[in-house]
């Protein structure tokens, strides 16, 4: 168990630790603060999440690309009257890009990137069952609510599988032909009824399985896997809060 592996930390620590930074960075207007927060979040993701090759490439290449696009986009959308005292960089038709607008766009892009990277600290290192177990144990969320929400959340991949099966069946029967928006609407209309029927059948099976296990019959239930809140989790949260206090004071 590595001290730098965020996957071994309590999910609530990874939720409440970055939360003050997310809230505070949204209200900033300078470049330094979101850059520092984004750099810290990126370091936590790269070191603690241990991303795979594809995820690592998306972080190292996609984040700068997205930041560049947002900088130019928000810079173009900035009201020129608010940055008229800055230097005009170039003009393309009716669009003008000023140096002050570019700085505003960069600040906005940095804030968005920082918030997304902070969300990835927990998003890339936490699973749904772990979050539910920690909420039930540490936050005293009723297990009826927690596991019911988890069961509903797991409908999403099930619907994806059902949709793939329905598409394959339509292709086998020659019902997937045609191009254009009208043909696409017809195809998706043909998916709706069998997808709804499959969802109802799956919901009935899940309901019967939960009832057969006496789900909700008792006020508490035992857990096979316990998600503890250790001292290092508290240190992690306090360290991020201290960083937020030092940056935003």
TrEMBL record:
It is found in: Membrane. It is a multi-pass membrane protein. The chain crosses the membrane at residues 31-49, 56-77, 97-125, 231-248. Keywords: Membrane, Transmembrane, Transmembrane helix. It comes from the Bacteria. It holds the Pfam family CbiQ. PANTHER family: PROTEIN ABCI12, CHLOROPLASTIC (PTHR33514:SF13). This is Energy-coupling factor transporter transmembrane protein EcfT.
């Amino acid at each position: 168990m590595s001290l730098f592996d965020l996957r071994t930390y309590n999910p609530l620590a990874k939720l409440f630790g970055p939360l003050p930074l997310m809230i505070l960075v949204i209200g900033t207007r300078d470049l330094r603060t979101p850059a520092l927060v984004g750099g810290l979040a990126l370091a936590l993701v790269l070191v603690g999440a241990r991303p795979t090759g594809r995820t690592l490439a998306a972080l190292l290449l996609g984040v700068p690309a997205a930041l560049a696009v947002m900088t130019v986009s928000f810079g173009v959308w900035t009201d020129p009257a608010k940055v008229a005292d800055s230097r005009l960089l170039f003009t393309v038709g009716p669009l003008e890009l000023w140096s002050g607008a570019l700085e505003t766009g960069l600040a906005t892009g940095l804030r968005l990137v920082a918030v997304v990277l902070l969300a990835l600290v927990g998003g890339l290192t936490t699973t749904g069952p772990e979050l539910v177990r920690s909420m039930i144990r540490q936050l005293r969320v009723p297990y009826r609510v927690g596991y019911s929400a988890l069961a509903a959340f797991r409908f999403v991949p099930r619907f994806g599988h059902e949709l793939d099966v329905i598409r394959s069946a339509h292709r086998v029967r020659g019902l997937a032909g045609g191009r254009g928006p009208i043909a696409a609407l017809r195809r998706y209309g043909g998916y709706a009824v069998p997808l709804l029927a499959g969802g109802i059948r799956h919901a009935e099976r899940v309901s019967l399985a939960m009832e057969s296990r006496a789900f909700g019959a008792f006020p508490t239930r035992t857990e096979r896997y316990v998600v503890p809140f250790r001292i290092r989790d508290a240190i992690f949260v306090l360290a991020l809060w201290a960083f937020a206090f030092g940056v935003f004071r």
